[in-house]
User: Fold this.
Amino acid sequence: MNLDRFPRINLCHAPTPLEFMPRLTQHLGGPQIWIKRDDCTGMALGGNKARKLEFLLGDALQQGADHVVTLGALQSNHVRQTAAAAARLGLACTVLLEHRHPNPDSDYLHNGNVLLDGLLGAEIVYRPGGTDMAAALMLMGDQLRAKGRRPYLIPSGGSNPVGTLGYVKVAQELLQQAQEKSLRLDHIVVASGSAGTQAGLVVGVAAQASKVAVQGFAVSQAAHLQHARVAALALATAQWIGDFPEIPPEAIRVNADYLGQGYSIPTPAMVEAVHQVARLEGILLDPVYTGKAMAGLMDWVRHGRYRSDENIVFIHTGGQAGLFGFCNTLSHSSRKAVNANPLD
Ligand SMILES: *Cc1c(COP(=O)(O)O)cnc(C)c1O
Assistant:
């Protein structure tokens, strides 16, 4: 399958590394665990959204846009990467941020991604929790057009068929890397939110008739809802590409057991996963997405759900800027985790 006919601009340091995690693998005593470093895509601290933005902003430039508009939660990684991409291309950028965190502390409100959105020059517009953000995005588009601007609207997480092409491409990149290492991939594990990452991987894997299973761990809603979201986006993306083999329903695998109370609400298992991976591998996960997905993977390994001869690739989708929005949650538990702080 050739994606070259879709407009795309280079924003990423790619291919990102595919690395073995020897100490985590040994610690868990199960399958071989690998990590695809899409936290290292490079643009303004990296992450998965840069992959989608290559196609989205390629499309925006082709349409003659001069202004990018998107939306997200206060600590949205997608918003931060969109602000960076717009800056890099010399486009104006307006971002709508929803105050939807139930118990925000000062770091969550002002540090991490929010700080970076401002540094990157985005105009930040706050909306109260519960706002219909998709409608707010359309309205902002209308207002900008009325002022003579040519806005390009990007939905939540960049997850429409255009953005999802980014992860169709990553599936190609990953399968090629595995082939170069003579590595048989059995499972891909990924955090699943607005669903473009998982849907793109599913479509990309199907396009190459690979047998690798793509497992999503939902971070924002119940499994049946997330399953429907991924399936609909995978179908829409396959239709967008055209002339595409059918995607069997069993190719969409979603589990929501590690979501906890809801989107961006910390769980003890997330805190443990963030600490373990930091201390065993020197790799930083994030509290909202990869920490919960890794908590799921670690628990499944402990429950013997994988054979020891299987190879698993965890997609590191980035998000570390979010760590600085969760200083309280993570630093209290760090002290507990090392058992004693000499200054306490
Ligand atoms: C957005 C995001 C995800 C989820 O990707 P979707 O395509 O929205 O499902 C995972 N990890 C991080 C760090 C993200 O910012």
